[in-house]
Every structure is written in C-alpha cells, then in structure tokens.
Amino acid sequence: MAEAASENSSVVDVRNSVPDGASGLERLIEIGLALSAERNHDRLTELILMEAMSITKADGGTLYLRTDEDTLKFAIMRTTTLKIAMGGTTGVPIPFPPVRMYNAETGQPNHNNVSASASVTKKTINIPDAYEAEGYDFSGTKKFDQSTGYRSKSFLCIPLLNYGDEVIGVLQLINAKDGAGEVIAFSKEVQRTIEALASQAAVAIDNQKLVEAQKALMDSLIKVMAHAIDAKSPYTGGHCQRVPELTKMLAAKAEATTEGIFADFKLDEQQRYELHVAAWLHDIGKVTTPEFVVDKATKLQTIYDRIHEVRMRFEVLQRDAEIKMLKSIAKGKNARIERKKFKDRTAELQKQWAFIADANIGGEFMSQEKQDKVKEVAKQKWYRYFDRKLGLSWTEAKLLDKAPPPPEGWEQLLADLPEHAEAEYHLGEVLNMCIQRGTLNDDERRKINDHIVLTIDMLKEMPFPKHLKRVPEYAGGHHEKIDGTGYPNKLKGDQMSWPAKMMGIADIFEALTAADRPYKKAKTLSESLKILWFMKKDKHVDPDLFELFLRSGAYMEYAEQFLRPEQIDKVDINQYLAPPAPPAPKQAAE
C-alpha cells in the first residue's frame, strides 16, 4: 500500500457530477445520465465506484473488470480512511495480481474469494462482518488489517452483468457507515439501490467496450489497408506509416505554440483521431496504381527493364560490324584498314551504349541536346530475321492489329512503334528515353496523380461518422499547393485546412528523405530542407508551417527517428527562416 496516493490530491472528484440532495430515484437517473455521457474509461470506472461509495457511505471499494482469461483485474481501489487511491485517473498502478474466477488446476469455480464467488454465481454477496463469515477466505484482508490497523468489516459484492447476462466485472464495497460514522452492515434497501446502479454501470462499461472495440477494428482495418499499399512495393514500404507520424508531430507542435498564427490552433481528442485516420489513409488510392508504375526505376522499365533489349541490339550491331569486316577481308580488301574500321565502329557503339544506358537512369533534368542525341543514336538500323508477332498474349497481339509488322525486316535501334501508343501507358522507347525529369512519362504521371482522385472518391464512399467527416478533405489535399497549381482541385492556401497543409509537408519531406526509392538516392537532411525551402519560396508549401517545422525542431525529431545516420548532416536553419520583424519605432514625446 506504500504506492497508494492521497484521494484528495490525485483523484478527479467525480462525485460532483451528481447532486447529493436528489432522491434515490432521481439520484439513479442522474447517475445513469452521467455514466452514459462519460467517454473516458478511467473516469467512467471512477464515477461508478465513487457514486456507489457515496450512496452507501462506504469507506472503501474496489471495481474489478473481467479479462479474456477469466480473471478479475483490479481497475480502481479507494479507501477514504487510509487515503488510498489507486487505478482510475490517479495513474497509480495497483500492485495486486488479478483474482481467478476458476481454479487454475481443477477448473472449478473459485468460491474462496468473495469477489470471484459473486462473479461465477452472478449473485450479490452481502457480508455483515468478514471476520465472522464462513465459506470465504479473508486471510489476505486480515493480514492487510493487521499491517495497517484497519478493520475490514462489512462487504457488499455485486456482479456487473451486461445485456447478454455475461459478467463483465464486480463492484465491491467495504464498511458502510451510519450517520455517526460507525461501521454497519449494508442494508437490503441500500443493496437494491446499488444493484440498480451496478446494472447501469454494466451497460455503460459494455457500451464503452463496444465503442472501443469498433474503434480498434477500424484502426486495424486502416492500418491493414496502409500496409497493403506499402507491401505492393518493396521500395515504398513504410511511406504510409511515416507520413502519419510526421503529420501528427507537426500538429502537436502547432498546438504547443502560444503565440503567432498557431496560438489558437487546438485539436480535441476526436479531431486528433480524425487527423490520424486521414494520415493513414492519405494514399489509399494507390491500391489501384500498378506497382511497375509506382516503382518505375528507369525510363524503359515496365514490368521489366527494357534496356536489356536495347543492349542486345547494340550487341547485334557490333556483330554485324564484325561480320562485315570479315566478309570484306575475305573479298580481298585491305585487312588492316578493315580491322581499323571495325575497331572505330566498336568504340563508337560502346560510347553510344554508355550514353543510352546513362540516359535510362533518369535524373533532375535532361537537356535538349541530350534528347537530340538520343534521337540520332536511335536512327541506326538492325535487321530482324524472326517474326515478332509470334508468342504474344492476346492483349499484346491486339496492339499490333493497326500496323502489323512484317515477318522480318530492318528496325531502328530505338523506336516509337504504333503499338507503343496503343498501350495504356505509352511504351515508345525514344519518347521514354527523352523524359526530361525523373523516369515517368505523361501517361504514367497522370496515373500516379490519379491516386489522389481515387483516394478522395474511395473515402467519400465510406460512411464516416460526423466526427470523421473531414477525413476525405485532409487525406485528399496533400498534393495541393498554396499557389493553386496543385492537384486534383487546384486549391489555394486559404481554401485548405491546416491539417491538409500539414499532411502536404509531411508527404513531401518523407519522399525527399526516404532511403527506399529505386529511382533516386536518399537525400541528406540539409538537401531535403533546401528543396523544401525552395518549395516554400515557390508557394508550393505553406510558409508559416515551414517555419514551424524548423523552429519547433520537428525536422530533427523526425530525422533522428526515421533517417539513416549518414543522412543527418549539419543544418543551419537560420538561412531558411524569415528575419524577425523590426521593433516598432518609438513615438517622440510631445
């Protein structure tokens, strides 16, 4: 009991929720209303016990809750005389092990313990004096009394039964008192009143458990969907988990701000949960996006990287050059000159191949000069001897219907063929090799961007309760930009909520620092903040949120939790922060 806390100092005084002057029936009605209105589990259990103690003028009490293992777990304990207050809102843990409802070895009901007996029999047990009671083991109670000088006397144990007549807990009261403060037995009238209270309490606890179970189920489904999206790709795994963490971190930093634009920003418990749900579901539309588009690591990659086909064509060109050399020598031409031509051609092909292979990787920007060089290299011809209409799936064969190729003939080294344009995503080799930024062509980028539209559509189809109505707006706004050039709705800054803007910054920063993308190397902390700063200057992200992100230290907290050690380099955030406003000029004395 050394860990017990003072009731007066540690416990929320829930007894004030029901007026003391009310009649018995009125009091039960008021208690029932208070119980049904309470959403916090600890406050609910505390309210039940404290009201029961108040009605019966009991000196102490315990509320047990049944576990899945058929034990009675101590949820809350109070003893006024000894100033013991544990469990509930105190935060003080109860050190006693759960009470077994059934014997661990025989499986028989445990009638030795009075609370266990009340639970297994589903009947109230009213004991005038524990020291004189027969059939129950009060040795632990007597030992406690001996060590504290207390005298446990009258006991009232009432099982809590839900709608299904299942025991969900036990309410135990100790030492009822009369008007003079003397310990008396619990009367039959008081017992009936507490049984009525216990019935209301059981319904309230059961309803709360059902609500919590539904919330837990929804949470698990949300996370399952997010994990499924991440699991589609070995490269984006973790994105749907990291973005919620950074989003909620930013929201917490805004709430902690006491001055400036975020001074009035506050979220209640339901609003925080709304943001939590939206952040976890922000990319749910990606469940429809093919992973070979999401993971497109090189310009020619589809389900596989077609650069291997292109390399084989270079191999063919070199062999053709070698065959040409050998035929020319066989015809009597100067061997030294022909070998020199072959050597020069081989060097040219090697240089061209190195250029094409490098261009396939993609990058920040591909100049027009390099694009023109791709087109020039692509014009070279190689001869195909085998019919490429054979061995195709019916869907791929259908693409050749408009312009069927001949059984054999000359083909360009790289080409944009008619069937390439007929595919869902343009497969043209020259077109893809000339992508200016990154690895996605226009069709693929549109498909990627469509995941936001699908996210919004899918979330709007879900029957969210009133307190989650803004989930589609929060989740669907993380690709909007402050200047109105984002997608899908081209919203401007004043049309977007703070949570949606927070998710936008979180999504960008996670993508910049992610070390699991095949199409780019992980950027360092300083590189990522510099890019984010440019995006702030270009009015793509909210400037106030960007400053909060830096000043609050959120960027470093996230980095220490999710970035690799080699990514965390030195950063001088002052270069990215707006200078402080100059002090107002002093007015001259009149």
Description of the molecule:
- By secondary structure, the chain is an alpha+beta fold.
- It folds into three domains: 7-211, Beta-Lactamase; 232-289 and 444-576, Hypothetical protein af1432, CATH 1.10.3210; 297-439, no CATH class.
- 47% of the residues lie in helices and 9% in strands.
- It is built from 21 helices and ten strands.
- The chain has helices at 7-10, 24-37, 41-56, 114-121, 139-148, 188-231, 239-256, 269-280, 291-294, 307-330, 335-361, 368-378, 394-398, 418-422, 429-433, 442-461, 471-476, 498-513, 525-537, 543-551, 554-562, and strands at residues 58-66, 71-79, 84-87, 99-100, 125-127, 155-161, 167-177, 183-184, 381-384, 409-412.
- Strands 1, 2, 3, 4, 5, 6, 7 and 8 form an eight-stranded antiparallel β-sheet that branches. It has a two-stranded antiparallel sheet with strand order 9-10.
- The chain is elongated and about 130 Å long.
